[in-house]
Fold:
Amino acid sequence: MARVFNFSAGPSMLPESVLNRAAAEMLDYKGSGQSVMEMSHRSKVFEEIIQEAEALFREVLGIPENYKVLFLQGGATAQFAGIPMNFMNKNQKADYVLTGQFSTKAYKEALKYGDVRVVASSKEATFSYIPKLERKDFDSEADYVYVCFNNTVYGTTYHYIPDTGDVPLFADVSSCFLSEPMDVTKFGLIYGGAQKNIGPAGLTVLIVREDLLGNARDITPSVIDYTQQAAAGSLLNTPPCYSIYICKLILEWIKNLGGLEAMKERNLAKSKLLYDYLDSSKLFTNGVNKEDRSMMNVTFVTGNPDLDAKFVKEATAAGFVNLKGHRSVGGMRASIYNAMPYEGVEQLVAFMKQFESDNT
Ligand SMILES: *Cc1c(COP(=O)(O)O)cnc(C)c1O
Structure:
């Protein structure tokens, strides 16, 4: 069976070698006589899997000792509530930067818990850019500043880390997790759903500076009380065992390829190929601010919705699937996460060139 090039924004493609390894270990994981899907989350064999996953995460991303790594469920969306419940606890104030759909959702959820301020928004320009923010833009009394680092729907990303002074910076990195090196020490918290770049759906990884824990509101559900989860080693209840195992295999794959520096090189090469073509094309255009372009989600349109639909249809038939833009914005989007090979983008660009010459 031929595998397609899957440009889905998430769940998205996984490295073929990881899938093969999982297949090989499906019926009998390392002589245990069981699949990872079947084993107790309290067993010695699973304990090794979750501990190795954490150790690899720490090694690959360079996570300092004073940060906890949590393996949670509920997706990024559950943490939209978990974050204010756990951290809006000193002045009951938080600053949010709105750069797209997911930061807006996080903001709306946080409104339920306290005094939430919009520091800046690029909504007036259909979220086509990232606001440039300085320390003076933030409320020094805020309990935290919240940003969405890579905007999956619009295809923009922060190419700088906002200086928030003494206020901890929190970032949703769902769609750029482990795509390039990141200085964790600049953040109080980073988190993301696994299904974009680091594994299957069902797992959410949250990395938090230890000194911020310990003040969750009394009404916080235990499963999103990060202090309780940290104390229990993410085993407060049954964790998403199989997704954690696949995440561990992906971390091994990244490490073997040369780590996050190598990942960044690969991702830069892929996105450059696609953006260079879009910039030279007379049919397709990318509408976001050039300097804020995402390396992971590349959006484009022809300017004619009927032609967009024709493109998506013909691309699908040719084995380039899930190129339709988010239902809220239309057009096209190629999500080219870590697992998308260079050849996938190369072949997509060749297909787009042919489509352009056939339709102009
Ligand atoms: C997909 C996505 C989400 C939502 O994730 P769920 O796991 O579906 O809750 C949140 N933030 C970003 C940046 C995303 O890309």
